[in-house]
Design brief:
Oligomer: single chain
Strand content: over 45%
CATH superfamily of the largest domain: TonB-dependent receptor, beta-barrel domain
Distance between the termini: 45 Å
Number of helices: 7
CATH topology of the largest domain: Maltoporin, Chain A
Structural class: mainly beta
Radius of gyration: 27 Å
Number of strands: 47
């Protein structure tokens, strides 16, 4: 039945897309990037431009009878851009017709691929993927531009447990991603304990995702950089919007106070404690399965759990003040909050007792930045920031008359000074100094028996970087090379980290790239016990001590080949990444290594492949990722390599989107091999009162398959008010995917526990924009 339905859905989608494409009126205005793609194929030329140059511009297709020179004249007259030849087969696109300087620094970030998968996603020449939520199209299962869910559509990015708080980029763990919000490091990334991104997309101007070839200005994050940037320019125009769906309500506003002062604000609040929706019920069942919350809901020893209450919110703000034409001051603030509490009741010795347990998670961030443009070529900036993360849980065990308090706090403060200098039209030189102080504390307090443990560690580090960007006059060669040096006061260690991004265009439609980097980080997340923090947020942040918790270091090299012509994109990239200094406790083992402390590494080798065909208003793509990811620990498994917990050997995505005027559709299928797990010796399950496991991670769960659908419709409520309605269905076929499998030892022997994925999960949205 499921296979039959799947075939019907895919066939219907393809037939609909094909017929709709034929019906598209070619006289309608099209996005300029689509027109450029058509002209590149028609005249066998290449357009070179920065993504900001053509953003939000639409134009009718030039008449097919026009010559190339006549087409360029037409574009010059109708776009307020300057199109000019650079050689016989290359055209450069510049902002403003009056501009005379032929090349500016922005071309160092020239776009390689526009509408990468869908509208609002681009790939630049440094290998960085850029997402612009305001221009975001649609993806299967998403009706709003959820930032961290969108990232999972990229090849090489997955979430092994379907959450945004566990993003696995090229085989890494979530704590190995550097997540920046307007330059501030964030230690919490999800609402609903990982099912929804914690960052409001409607105040986010751009998101940059870098998997390799990271700029030398960034430290930390041995797996990836996820850099969210708010709008940094005064709009001098009031903009606002609000919306609601089956999990939350939100709103945002950009308010010009004066010609040189603007306020940007956003707020979001869940409705989960006010009303139960089908989406909330599915989320609750998914995130709280196999935790103290649901385990106690079954009557055990006359104990029941009732009246659980959960809610989340986030509030963000940014103040933009232009002191003068050359001096800019920016202040930003963000508060992310999750809260769950539940009542545990019992009758003990004929006495009714009720105690309330709960967990809260928050991340406060604030920063101030001063930027000065000394002249047209030299810019400096100074940023001071603080980020405070706090995770608190109180767990009452009425039967055993015990109360457990657990806390994990991170205080991260820093100063960043940087400069950017256009040496010549082809060169840009960036330099900077950064100081960081990170303090992390962990508390455990038990009343019966009395026990209290409080540990706090602090690391201060000094970093300096220098980076040179170069582009040839014909835009065919792009090079960005940098060096970052970091000194750790506590350890007396000094690390040098080179970074490289090289991109070469050839035969007009081909590009070859080489990316490489050395990186390190001093923070990590570990799991002491699987039932820590009520079993909901098991991971706690810790700091390296250069003893049993070393500094994590990584090396990565990759090379890729890209082809783009006539709306067809073919991309293939191979990579090797080695990460040293990981601890066994950071990997979440639930087998014979669960309580073992050891230091090791993982090495992943893989290939990411993508083919994407773009039509007028439509995009269809097939991506495939192959990777082999192995651990090597000093003592675990006798020092022999074994599969990583995040070893997803094969992953395939097939999806398509279609825009017909104001109506958008998206349908997609995600398939991957199952997560590795460790089985039990069936002949002799228990030895010396412990589970007798087989060799680690030699088995895999069943293959994972999920099909998602979404659709939105835009319409006008009035001349100045636009609205959007949307419907999404996650896991359309309601397939029961196993996300994890492990074993526990009980009174009746060995028990196998399986964690299930989200079932069929609908969501609807309504938004207005002024």
């Amino acid at each position: 039945m499921s296979k039959h339905l799947f075939k019907i859905l895919i066939t219907s989608f393809i037939l609909f897309t094909t017929s709709a494409l034929k019906a598209q009126n070619v006289n309608n205005k099209l996005p300029l990037e689509i027109v450029i793609d058509s002209l590149e194929s028609r005249f066998n030329i290449v357009f070179s431009y920065a993504d900001s140059s053509i953003k939000n511009k639409k134009i009718r297709l030039p008449d097919t009878s026009l010559s190339l020179n006549e087409v360029l004249d037409y574009l010059n007259e109708n776009t307020n851009l300057k199109f000019s030849f650079l050689g016989k087969d290359q055209v450069i696109v510049q902002k403003g017709k009056s501009r005379t300087r032929p090349i500016k620094l922005e071309y160092l970030e020239e776009v390689l691929v526009t509408n990468y998968l869908t509208k609002g996603i681009t790939l630049d020449n440094s290998g960085t993927v850029k997402i612009e939520p305001e221009d975001f199209g649609i993806l299967p299962g998403l009706i709003e531009p959820d930032i961290l869910q969108t990232i999972q559509a990229l090849p090489g990015v997955a979430s092994i447990d379907e959450t945004v708080s566990n993003l696995n980029v090229r085989g890494g763990t979530h704590d190995q991603n550097l997540i920046l919000w307007d330059g501030i490091k964030m230690y919490q990334s999800g609402h609903f304990f990982g099912l929804i991104s914690a960052f409001n997309p409607y105040l986010t101007n751009k998101v940059e995702v870098t998997k390799n070839g990271t700029s030398a200005r960034y430290g930390d994050g041995v797996s990836s950089i996820i850099n969210m940037q708010l709008d940094n320019s005064l709009n001098n125009e009031f903009k606002a919007g609000a919306g609601l769906n089956l999990t939350h309500v939100d709103g945002f506003a950009k308010i010009p106070v004066s010609n040189d002062l603007e306020l940007q604000v956003s707020a979001r609040r869940s409705v989960t404690d006010l009303i139960e929706t089908p989406t909330y019920n599915q989320y609750f069942e998914r995130i709280f399965q196999d935790t103290d919350v649901t385990n106690n809901q079954t009557e055990i020893n006359n104990t029941v759990t009732t009246n659980e209450a959960f809610y989340f919110y986030d509030v963000g703000a940014k103040v933009l003040y232009d002191l003068s034409e050359k001096d800019k001051l920016r202040f930003n603030f963000l508060n992310i909050y999750n809260n769950l509490d539940y009542l545990e009741e019992a009758t003990i010795n004929d006495v009714d007792e009720a105690l309330r347990s709960g967990i809260t998670q928050r991340n406060l961030a604030a920063g101030i930045e001063y930027q000065r443009d000394w002249n047209g070529a030299f810019t400096t900036s100074l940023q001071v920031y603080a980020s405070n993360y706090n995770l608190e849980a109180t767990n009452f065990d009425i039967i055993n008359d015990q109360r457990l308090i657990q806390e994990n706090e991170v205080v991260d403060t820093g100063i960043k000074l940087s400069s950017s200098y256009d040496i010549r039209d082809n060169f840009n030189w960036s330099n900077g100094y950064q100081f960081f102080e990170v303090g992390i504390s962990n508390l455990q307090d038990v009343n019966n028996p009395i026990f209290r443990s409080y540990i706090k560690e602090v690391i201060r580090s000094h970093s300096a970087f220098s980076e040179l960007g170069f582009i040839t006059n014909n835009f065919n060669t792009h090079i960005k090379a940098g060096l970052r040096g970091t000194y750790f006061e506590k350890f007396g260690d000094f690390l040098l980290e080179p970074r490289l991004s090289f991109n070469q265009r050839f035969l007009n439609n081909f590009k070859f790239e080489v990316l490489g980097e050395f990186k390190s980080q001093t923070t990590a997340q570990i799991i002491d016990l699987q039932n820590d923090f009520l079993g909901i947020e098991k991971r706690r942040w810790i700091l390296a001590n250069n003893d049993d918790i070393p500094i994590i270091k990584s090396k990565q090299i990759s090379s890729g080949l890209h082809f783009k012509k006539n709306g067809l994109i073919i991309s293939a990239e191979g990579y090797i990444k080695k990460v040293d200094g990981i601890t066994a406790r950071s990997q979440g083992f639930q087998n014979q290594f669960q309580f073992v402390n050891d230091i090791g590494s993982y090495e992943i080798k893989g290939v990411d492949f993508l083919i994407n065909k773009q039509f007028s208003g439509a995009s269809a793509w097939l991506s495939y990722s192959y990777s082999k990811n192995d651990y090597t620990f000093d003592t675990l498994n006798n020092g022999e390599p074994f599969p990583n917990n995040a070893d997803l050997r094969h992953a395939v995505t097939f999806a398509g989107t279609y825009d017909f005027n104001d109506l958008k559709f998206a349908l997609g299928a995600n398939w991957r091999t199952g997560k590795p797990f460790t089985s039990v010796n069936q002949q002799n399950e228990v030895v010396d009162d412990t589970i007798n496991f087989n060799k680690p991670n030699q088995n895999n769960l069943e293959d994972y398959l999920r099909i998602d659908f979404s659709t939105t419709y835009n319409f006008d409520l009035s001349r100045d008010t636009k609205a959007k309605v949307g419907l999404s269905i996650w896991n359309l076929l309601n397939k029961k995917n196993n996300l994890n499998s492990y074993y526990t030892l009980g009174d009746n022997g060995v028990n196998q526990i399986e964690n299930q994925s989200l079932g069929i999960t609908p969501n609807v949205t309504f938004r207005v924009k002024f």
